[in-house]
Each structure stands twice: as structure tokens, then as C-alpha cells.
Amino acid sequence: MSSLSKKLMTKIGFERFIPQIDISDKKSWFWRHGVELPEIFVPLWQLLVDKTLLEEVSLKGLHDFLGFNGRIFLSLVMPDELLDNLRFKDYFRLVKNLGPDATMIPDNYTYVDDPLFLSWSQTVRLVSLANDFLKLDIPLIGLIKGANHLQIDWAIRKQVEMGYVSFAMPARELFEDNLLGDLLPSALMSLKWFSKRTRTDFELLLYGIGRRLKYREIGSYSNLSWFLEAKQGHYFKGGKLYNFKDPEIRFEECTCEACRGMMPQELIDLMLSDKELGLKTLALHNLLDMNRALTRGR
Ligand SMILES: [Zn+2]
């Protein structure tokens, strides 16, 4: 790798909870339904798999297309098969056309059971693209990735040397594979150590899971769980997930802006008479509950 550049960056200043939205499904565009939150993540991959949508959004830019006035962050966490097709010039063009307020650096794929040279070459690629991304003139979000502690530590160190101060850690797959409990603490330790050494304050966002973890170093969370779980008929209460037919919560009224006194049973009834409206209400309820649960104690 050629030598790395450096750029002076300031923290993005993430909200405690930043909902991801589904850009192809307007039911997830919560601001159109009366809920106001200042920031969202839009996953780029959803546009890459839909050419027509990508063209339309590229023409208008994300802000105009979505009609969203808050800050829009572009997520580059995406399925492996899409990653291989993208070079820096593609990312550069996409980011220019879409006009987000900040973007993640590109994702890579590292698996703990891959041969080490593979995950190292992916880690080197991550750092190399993080270096290319310094040429973009919008705020950047570094990524915390790696198949083991060494790779994570090295990737963080290189990004810190380039000036990155805001980081996201894609957590969904690690969580599902039961690896988060091992890799997250070491990532936090690395961040802490570099923070001390460079006298810099970093911020960390956990990306892709819908529950609050016990680590206080995690400043922010982002996920689409509030919406995906609603589509499965799941209901959040106090940050916990229930089937909305669960007798424990089924007949308890909810006073949130979306439910306005309805209990889950009434949401079930609503879904039967107007599926669209029922799902929309449940999703908004989940969004509000998750926001409350994740912002609590601040
Ligand atoms: Zn509610």
C-alpha cells in the first residue's frame, strides 16, 4: 500500500438512535407520517439492486427524493456479491450524485473462518479505500471490521492515523454468529487506547442490531429492526421484542404518538381491516419505542 494521507476531521455527532430506512418502501419513510427524527441511514445496496430507482434517486439526490430535511448518512454496508463490483470511482460518482450529508467508507468481507491471507487482504482493501475516500469533501464514517483482534486493531489504527474520528461497527452478522461478544470488547479497547495515545475523542455507532448492549462506549445505534420486525408482526415495548399476540402485552394500551391509546390487540384488528395502515402504525410504534429505549439515560 502506498503511504496514507491525513485529513482533519470532526465528529459527525451522531444521535443516540439513527433509524435506517428502506428507500424502496415508503412505509418506512416515517417523517411523512408525522414522526420527526433528525437523522437517517440509507443503505446504498438497496439502490444498487434496483437500476430504475438508482437512476431516479441519482437525478434528484437523496434529500429531494426522500423529502427529508434532516441529515442523511449513506451506509455502504452491503452484501458481498455487490462489493466486488465497486471501485473507488464508482463510489465517488454515486456519492456525488446522491448527495448524502456523510458517508461510511466501503464495507469489506472478513470471516473468522476464512484463511488469514484472505481476511488480511480484505482488511488492507478497507484501509486503502478509507484512504481514497479522503478525497471526498463530505464528512466520513470509518468502519470497524476484521476477522480477529489484530485485524480490527490494525484497521482502527490506520483509520485513526488518517484522521477518522467517527466510526461505525457493522454488528448484525457478528451478533447472529455469536461473535460480537468476542470482537466488540477488543474493538472498544483499541479505540480507547488510540484515544488516549492521540488525545482524541472518538464516537462509535453500532450498526445493524435492535437492542441496547451493556457497553457504555457505544454512543449510538442504527438499525432497520423497527421496520423489519413490524413486517413480522413483532412489537417493541421498553426496547424488548414481543409477538404482538403475546398475552403479556396484548391488552396494554400504548400512549405513543402512533398508537394514541391503542393496545396491540387493536393493532391486530386494524391490520385485518386495513393492512397498510396497520403495518405503518406498528412500524411507527416500534420506531418510537426503540428511540425511547435507546435514548433513555442520556
Ligand atoms: Zn405505541
Mean pLDDT rating: 94
Task: Work out the strand percent.
Answer: 5-15%
Structure classification: alpha/beta
User: What low-confidence regions span 5 or more consecutive residues with pLDDT below 50?
Assistant: none
Count of helix runs:
12
Fourth CATH level, the homologous superfamily of the largest domain: Queuine tRNA-ribosyltransferase-like
Q: Could you characterize the architecture of this molecule?
A:
This protein is of the alpha/beta class and 298 residues long. The chain folds into two domains: 17-223, TIM Barrel (Alpha-Beta Barrel), CATH 3.20.20; 233-298, no CATH class. Helices cover 43% and strands 14% of the residues. The protein contains twelve helices and ten strands. The protein has helices at 45-48, 51-60, 62-66, 80-83, 88-98, 116-132, 149-162, 172-176, 180-198, 225-231, 264-273, 275-295, and strands at residues 17-19, 39-43, 71-75, 102-104, 140-143, 166-170, 203-207, 220-223, 234-237, 240-243. Strands 1-8-7-6-5-4-3-2 form an eight-stranded parallel β-sheet. A two-stranded antiparallel sheet has the order 9-10. Helix 6 runs parallel beside helix 7, helix 7 packs parallel to helix 9 and helix 10 runs antiparallel to helix 12 (275-295). The chain starts with 16 loop residues before the first strand and ends with a helix. The mean pLDDT is 94. The site of zinc ion has 5 residues, from loops.
Task: Please give a handful of descriptors for the protein shown.
298 residues, TIM Barrel, 2 domains, eight-stranded parallel sheet, two-stranded antiparallel ribbon, 12 helices, 43% helix, globular, binds zinc ion
